[in-house]
Amino acid sequence: MFNWNVEDMKLLTMARVGEGYDKAFSCESEVSIEDKFEFVDRMQDGKLTYFYDMVKNFGEAIPSMKKDGNGKPTDYAKKAWVRKNDSKELFCRTTDSYNNYGDFNLLGCKLNLFTYHISFERTRKTFKEIVINKLFHNQLKKCKDMEYDHFYDQNETVQFLDEFKCKYSDHNIWLLEDHFDLEVKVAQNPSQKNKVVVTTCSAGYTDYKDKELSIEEIQQIDAELTKLDDLRAKIEKAEQAYEEAKLSVAEKIKSMAG
Question: Distance between CA 121 and CA 101 in Å, rounded?
Fold first, then answer.
């Protein structure tokens, strides 16, 4: 059995392996297909077992279903079977630009009951392993997001710096003066360090100097940014009052004209 606890936050710091953007978690190669299936099913309230039960039952029902000229179940027969047997209503019952009748969506994967059954019967083991591996990977990504939410909620410094970074960017401070930059690095997991660094350079861009700010210095800047927020709110309110006043004058002039 694959065990996971959001408070352990092990996926946040776990090594990723392979190539490409969406690399695998290092644990994926160590977990059996059976345990991957059990974990996804447990995390998704039994939906995976439900899907495979439907695949199995659909296959057993095919011999008694009405066939077309090629000996295949008719579309009407397949749709009627879904309506009768999909007690949890987890399969799509419409066909449009996004879905086909019989689609089953789970963790970003779309599986169609009818086409999956055909592929499953041809290459039962290989095809099922491909699907389970993909679902397990996507479930781990979802768990990692849950770990980050837990990490964020438990870390007041991360919350403060995240808000500070947004506030600083919102006011475009770096555009006002040449030869300086402020970089805010907010920790993404327990092993990373929060850091705010000011970089200044000479007029000729030849001499660079970095200084890491203390939390007290960052709080001082944040207080000034809060003042900017207040001033902008007052400006916006004044601009609104100005526009309303102009409209009032225009209406007064119009009334004088009779």
Answer: 20
Per DSSP, the three-state class of 204 is coil
b/e map 58-97, b = 16+ CB within 10 Å: beeeeeeeeeeeeeebeeebbbebbeeebeeeebbeeeee
* Global pTM value: 0.82
> Which residues have CB under 8 Å from 210's CB, separation 6+?
197, 198, 199
- Name residue, tokens 């930059």: 181
In this predicted structure, what is the pLDDT of residue 173?
81
Report the sign of the C-alpha dihedral through residues 225, 226, 229, 235, in that order.
negative
Q: Residue 204's pLDDT band (boundaries 50, 70, 90)?
A: low
Q: How far apart are CA 52 and CA 27, in angstroms?
A: 25
* pLDDT tens profile 86-133: 999 999 999 888 889 999 999 999 999 998 877 665 566 678 899 999
The number of C-alpha atoms within 13 Å of 99 and in the hemisphere containing its C-beta is 16
Contact 116, 20 (CB under 8 A): no
